[in-house]
């Protein structure tokens, strides 16, 4: 990390550096999340599908015999700390404590997304076939997106407003070359991506660009998924503690959290591998 005194000399540089960081987690609202977990792990229940059947007059009601399962999610503690020298604080004309504390909080927010992305990376269903536009030699094409959409439907993933798609920024640019994604004739004025670059709705899903998706070789792993397919658990939300250390004549700012993420239902996730 650059020396703290850099911020004293270049206030604008410090402010820009902070502004360029992703402001917390972008993916936590898109998955099944629960807070207040006690212990080192928690379980997310997974319920199978049932089958309806006819019943004879005065006969017993048929039982669906649902399959119940539980997916365990392990939690891990994460920290992001920094020393702030007292004399440095006196020389600067910005609130150095706030800058460092926010930077630590944003770092932990990015860690939350890393945990969720790691869970998504365990997916086994992929939108890859021999059809033109869907191979690993292709970027994120309309054919690849429609294949992922098809696989979601084939798996009976609910189209209930809780579908999401997360792509890299190169893939977001690929999408902007697709008429159905950007043309008001297809999606209406209210869904145009030009209104903001953080998210837009298309094909019944909320599409989100993200800079932290896994890249293997020249392939970026993008995902089409349902909220209930991935679980995120929180033991301790992001908190900040500031303490003074006289022997160092400095304050130590400690940001910490305890969280975890896990794949709950692989059928609710489709990976789109895009050449980048």
Structure characterization notes:
The chain is of the alpha+beta class. It folds into 2 domains: 5-48 and 62-119 and 232-261, Major capsid protein gp5 (Major capsid protein gp5 fold, 2-Layer Sandwich); 124-230 and 265-275. The protein is built from 8 helices and 12 strands. The protein has helices at 5-9, 11-19, 86-91, 96-120, 142-154, 169-175, 179-182, 184-187, and strands at 32-34, 41-47, 68-74, 76-85, 163-167, 200-202, 205-209, 215-216, 219-226, 230-245, 250-263, 269-275. Strands 5, 6, 7, 8, 9 and 12 form a 6-stranded mixed beta sheet that branches. Strands 1-10-11-4 form a 4-stranded mixed beta sheet. The protein has a two-stranded antiparallel ribbon with strand order 2-3.
Please give the structural blueprint.
Blueprint: H1 5-9, H2 11-19, E1 32-34, E2 41-47, E3 68-74, E4 76-85, H3 86-91, H4 96-120, H5 142-154, E5 163-167, H6 169-175, H7 179-182, H8 184-187, E6 200-202, E7 205-209, E8 215-216, E9 219-226, E10 230-245, E11 250-263, E12 269-275
Parallel strand pairs: 1-10, 5-7
Antiparallel strand pairs: 2-3, 4-11, 5-9, 6-7, 8-9, 9-12, 10-11
Précis, in short:
By secondary structure, this protein is an alpha+beta fold. It has 8 helices and 12 strands.
């Amino acid at each position: 990390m650059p020396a703290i005194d850099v911020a004293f000399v270049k206030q604008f540089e410090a402010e820009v550096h902070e502004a360029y960081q992703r402001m917390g987690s972008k993916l936590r609202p898109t998955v099944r999340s629960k807070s207040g977990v006690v212990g080192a792990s928690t379980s997310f229940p997974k319920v199978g599908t049932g089958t309806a059947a006819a019943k004879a007059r005065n006969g017993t009601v048929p039982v669906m015999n649902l399959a119940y399962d539980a997916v365990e999610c392990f939690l891990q503690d994460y920290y992001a700390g920094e020393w702030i020298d007292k004399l440095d604080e006196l020389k600067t004309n910005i609130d150095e404590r706030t800058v460092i504390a926010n930077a630590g909080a944003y770092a932990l927010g990015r860690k939350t997304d890393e945990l969720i992305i790691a869970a998504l990376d365990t997916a086994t269903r992929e939108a890859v076939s021999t059809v033109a536009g869907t191979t690993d030699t292709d970027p994120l094409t309309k054919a690849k997106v429609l294949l992922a959409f098809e696989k979601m439907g084939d798996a009976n993933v609910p189209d209930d407003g809780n579908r999401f798609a997360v792509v890299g920024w190169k893939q977001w640019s690929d999408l902007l070359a697709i008429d159905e994604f950007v043309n008001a004739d297809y999606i209406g004025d209210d869904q145009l991506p030009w209104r903001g670059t953080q998210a837009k709705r298309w094909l019944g899903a909320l599409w989100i660009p993200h800079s932290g998706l896994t890249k293997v070789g020249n392939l970026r792993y993008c995902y089409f998924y349902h909220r209930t397919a991935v679980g995120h658990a929180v033991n301790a939300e992001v908190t900040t503690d500031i303490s003074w250390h006289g022997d160092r004549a400095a304050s130590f700012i400690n940001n910490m959290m305890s969280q975890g993420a896990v794949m709950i239902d692989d059928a609710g996730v489709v990976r789109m591998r895009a050449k980048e």
